[in-house]
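Tokens for SAE1 enzyme. Go.
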Amino acid sequence: VCLTCCSRDVMVKINQICHKNSVKFFTGDVFGYHGYMFADLGEHEFVEEKTKVAKVSPGVEDGPDTKKTKLDSSETTMVKKRVVFCQLKEALAVDWSGEKAKAALKRTAPDYFLLQ
């Protein structure tokens, strides 16, 4: 389900219905130069391709770069990952007065507060 131009109450209600029924939910809007997007994919599993790292053996190269690792782009492995997304209601209910939230505030885009 994709929503845009909806009130906060409508977005929260539809997200709760989607989350309960394991339906992926996206919402977003734009206000001039600012905008937001929220995604609740429930329990989302995906595969990520990782490049294998080959360590350089000492004595093969000279100089300060001998300790650096090199990426071998010819060999990759597939890593299965799982992410659990939160609901919109939870994302909007963050208590910004705690110490942990103050640290997160520095990493939070100002556009987050447009939705508030």
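The CA atoms of residues 43 and 63 lie 48 Å apart.
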